[in-house]
Amino acid sequence: MSSHKHFRKRQAPRRLLSLILPNRIARRIFPGTLPTIDGPSISKATLHLDVLQDLHRVRVTTPPVLIDGLPESGATHHLDTSDVLRVSSCDKCRVTINILPDDVLLHIFHLIRAWRLSWEWHRLVHVCWRWRSVVFVSPNFLDLRLVCGPRTRVQLTDIWPPLPIIIRDTEDLPMPEDYDFAAATVHNNRVCEINLVLLTSSQLQRLASAMQEPFPALTHLMLNLGGDYSRQALSLPDGFLGGSAPRLQSLWLRSIPSPALPKLLSSATSLVRLSLWNIPHSGYISPENIVTSLAMLSNLESLTIDFESPLSRPKQESRHPPLPTRTVLPALTRFEFKGVSEYLEDLVALVNTPLLNSICITFFHQLIFDLPQLAKFMRRTTRFQALDEAYVNFGTYGVQVIPLTQTGDEESRLKISCKELDWQLSSVAQVFASFFPSIYMVEHLYIHGPRNLLPQWQDDIESMQWLEILHPFTTVKNLYVSENSAQCIAPALQELVGGRVTEVLPALESLFMEELLLSGPVGEAIEQFVAARQVLGRPVTVSRWNRT
């Protein structure tokens, strides 16, 4: 072997650690100029004596169950570098990296695992046989995983030790159409995560066929049916995962009907997050069935039920008065729903969620909104507090109310999806009139609207519709109106004359307008409203709203 090749071989450990350790650490271990892949030659890899002394003082605390190759009893111990220090005293305070004991190397590797976003442990095992043995002696401590991705030859997984397996793709790099899912899942007892965000219909069919056995180590499952696909034969079969998922913590499905879901959920007692997105009508699950499935999930913290279309609704003849007893979801903190109001009404009538922090609701457009069960549900959830401010945002594709409630932790919202502005006004007025009492505690009300829809607003919307929206807000003291919505709200307020002037916003004290128009139709309308309030002893001040 030439001296140049021999030198490069000796530099491999140092060059690798210098590339993967943070600079502040690597500069202490390897003093002088840090090497780069294409940079100049570097001197012999050495460790300063003070670095070894620092390592000697490190106290390492690790759960014994995570460290395969270390003593089971010692939860806290010192890294023993005394032998290194004795040897180094004969070498002018310099030693080669190979003098480090295995436990020191192990904890250096563990620090690399903690500092690096991408854990490329395979680079370490290719340095030398000693590093390879150090890495593989403690796979749990170093969190070693085999990743089967779009560029992985799954047939080569058998050359590695029996490590946990992750199967995943990305939005930028989906799985090849002919990917061998049967080979990737052959070690079903070792597969711990499956994250597939761009599945085709044929891939989903092959994956479902390959996953008919139990996957006892599986903790995270994400399946997204993306792109163009047919609706036929795309559901997960009854035998999916062998009907059992005892360690599953996160289940995320999109555009995938699953007749086997109730059976699967009944065994997933460790489930923490359940997200069912864009549920096709063919995958409709009744509120009663979903609640029955959720009853055993005492650890569930996050729940999403998102339907693809308003066709997914309870049949009128199947709807019954709520039962006197309800299912308690003791750990649920976040709930997200998209669908028709009848489904949500039937669902929330069956459950109690004492720890709920956040609720996000999206309704499809419908002519009538009646939400008495939702109001009762919110009152039963004691963590929700009365609102002191609310934002009503009218947009191109719907109207949104933020926040829907206050918990002090997370924001909640309600959205109604429809393009026609008169439908937006009618829908939100019905929701305000029938919803929970906490909305009547609002003191600050903000109304926004898109600029490009102003002509349509003025032509299609009657003043009475705006008054219907404002009528429930009996405690509002400050009303904030954006420039475009002012030209619609001002004429509505102008119609309140005589004794009617306090029928809407009786507690109003201040009106803030984004553009303070004191002349023209808007200015005249506001002036008449203010004068009428003054006569009745309910003065209102008008100010400019400096919106940020």
Shape: elongated
Low-confidence segments? 1-93
Count the helices. How many?
18
Helix content: 25-40%
Helix-strand category:
alpha/beta
Give the integer mean of the pLDDT values.
Answer: 76
Strand content: 15-25%
Distance between the termini: 70 Å
The strand order across the widest sheet is: 5-6-7-8-9-10-11-13-15-18-17-16-19-20-21-22
Number of strands: 22
Largest sheet: 16 strands, mixed
Rounded to an integer in angstroms, the radius of gyration calculated over CA atoms is 32 Å
Describe this structure in words.
The chain is α/β, with parallel strands linked by helices and 548 residues long. It contains 18 helices and 22 strands. It is elongated, with a radius of gyration of 32 Å.
Summarize the entry for a quick read:
The chain is α/β, with parallel strands linked by helices.
List keywords for this structure.
16-stranded mixed β-sheet, 548 residues, alpha/beta, disordered N terminus, elongated
Strand and helix map with partners:
Elements: H1 3-20, H2 23-29, E1 47-48, H3 49-57, E2 59-61, E3 76-78, H4 82-88, E4 94-95, H5 102-115, H6 121-125, H7 129-136, E5 146-148, E6 165-168, H8 181-184, E7 191-199, H9 201-210, E8 220-225, E9 250-254, H10 261-267, E10 273-279, H11 287-294, E11 302-307, E12 327-328, E13 334-339, H12 341-348, E14 351-352, E15 358-364, H13 372-380, E16 389-394, E17 398-402, E18 413-417, H14 421-434, E19 444-448, H15 454-460, H16 463-470, E20 478-481, H17 483-494, E21 510-513, H18 520-535, E22 541-544
Parallel strand pairs: 5-6, 6-7, 7-8, 8-9, 9-10, 10-11, 11-13, 12-14, 13-15, 15-18, 16-19, 19-20, 20-21, 21-22
Antiparallel strand pairs: 1-4, 2-3, 16-17, 17-18
